[in-house]
């Protein structure tokens, strides 16, 4: 009986501690005292040891959002969150005006953690990631007599981000205190703090959760993403999002390290239109609607992203739809999937990219630190300056591995809307798909159309490709240089591989047509219209082209030269294998320097370096 009673007591004790909240502060109440602080809290100020500019003391103060602006407004850089994380009030530190090296700590009252099992402190933080201030969580186990650092906080960015800090056994006492300390640098970005809690660590998320306007587990993607900070349990977690659900928000970064057995899935649920995440009000030149930062095995299925028409300036607008990047030198974003999604931004913002895969930090480990094995399927991309931009780290040692763009399950991927110049339409180079330092890349069954600019235009651009690259079953058409004075080239496919790594580029079953220029200047020998263009100057490269069909008709662009296919390599370049291709240049014949070719070779007598072959190709030119 005694053992049974002890067992029941243990269960009861665990039930009490699990889910327990020991402190909660939202900063909505009255601040009082000198310096002012929330009820039961205090401010600890340490005078600066240097610096001649700025104000000291500069304390944490209450700041309130009135629906359109903060009060007090602060000074300097206007990189601020839009609204509180919840409610209307936050704690705010004005580092822009604070004298450098001063320390200001907003401090809890006494917290009794004697019955705690696995406590933690959580809070929401917003601060520009470029800020030079230092933010620390600190603790005292003797009522504030002495303090020690618990953790230095990585600055997350301007979107509200949930920070989770474990509390060690040192602080499981009756008179613990905790503080959030800022060390000022003067003139840097302000610090915004909301919803501080000390609580038991909840169990990891598992099973089926819902995101819907009301009656669900979460009413926003932000809330669901923040819940992932508790980790993912056995079997993973699936967020079912109501069909037709529309939410306006720039989501916090997803950083969860899920697994193939325990994945994270955001998916449309029910019949009707895809759920839409509309961009919130941006505050910088690198805002993203959804950020996958160092996360693994996260899927977005049937979730659309859309710029908010109310965002009228480039600062307010989202630069990226899905932003996929590493979270440190050894924590790449890997094995993530984006599918069945429509992404619509605003191409007047020339920084926009519908999907941007990028190294945020220089990787030091290829297997763990690069953005590997991410898949992009069944996409519709419209009204953006660049569509899919895959930018690996510029090193043959640390490329991104195994990226795929294409289709699954009978779907379609279309880059570019139905109107001319839907992608780009500005004065900067524009790319349907840009791929740099990618290894094992596949681009397949993708339609790329209606891309324009007054300078270089690329349907698919490959540079510094490593390993084996496969481009197949793609349809690329309606690419145009819209300038009447520019002879900048247009390429259906541009491919250059990386020297010294024995790369292979396979280009097969692609269709390229309707590449045009608006140029009306003096007749030029510059080949502006290019179907497939190979930058082939190194012997280690190998290009294999099979069953491609390229049609060039520059009859309305007679002042420029054109070619269906061109390889720039000398006789010492990489080997070409060219079989069963159709290259037809239908441009009307003319006199003068403008020439129109089916095939341009680096030699008058050779198609390429020794070992190159060409069989069963059909070539047509309407005349020089």
Summarize the structure in words.
There is one protein chain. A hairpin with a 7-residue loop joins strand 10 and strand 11 (148-152). With 624 residues, this protein is mainly beta. The radius of gyration is 29 Å and the shape is elongated. The protein is built from 3 helices and 50 strands.
Show unreliable segments: 1-16
Class from helix and strand fractions? mainly beta
> Rounded to an integer, what's the Rg over CA atoms?
29 Å
If you average the pLDDT, what whole number results? Answer: 91
- The oligomeric state of the chains shown is single chain
| Cα end-to-end separation | 102 Å
Count of individual helical segments: 3
Morphology: elongated
- Binned, the helix content reads under 10%
Largest sheet: 24 strands, parallel
How many strand units? 50
Strand content: 35-45%
Please give a handful of descriptors for the protein shown:
about 625 residues; mainly beta; 10-stranded parallel β-sheet
Furnish the topology, listing elements before pairings.
Blueprint: H1 2-17, E1 21-25, E2 31-32, E3 37-38, E4 42-46, E5 61-65, E6 70-71, E7 89-93, E8 103-107, E9 119-127, E10 134-140, E11 148-152, E12 157-166, E13 177-183, E14 191-200, E15 205-211, H2 221-227, E16 232-242, E17 246-248, E18 264-269, E19 276-278, E20 288-293, E21 298-301, E22 304-306, E23 320-325, E24 337-344, E25 353-358, H3 366-369, E26 375-382, E27 386-391, E28 400-401, E29 404-406, E30 413-415, E31 423-426, E32 430-436, E33 438-439, E34 442-444, E35 446-453, E36 457-465, E37 468-472, E38 475-481, E39 490-497, E40 504-508, E41 511-517, E42 527-535, E43 542-546, E44 549-552, E45 561-567, E46 575-579, E47 582-585, E48 596-600, E49 613-615, E50 618-621
Parallel strand pairs: 15-16, 16-18, 17-19, 18-21, 19-22, 20-23, 21-24, 22-24, 23-25, 24-26, 25-27, 26-29, 26-30, 27-32, 28-33, 29-34, 30-35, 31-35, 32-36, 34-37, 35-38, 36-39, 37-40, 38-41, 39-42, 40-43, 41-44, 42-45, 43-46, 44-47, 45-48, 46-49, 47-50
Antiparallel strand pairs: 1-14, 2-3, 4-8, 5-6, 5-7, 7-14, 8-13, 9-12, 9-14, 10-11, 10-13
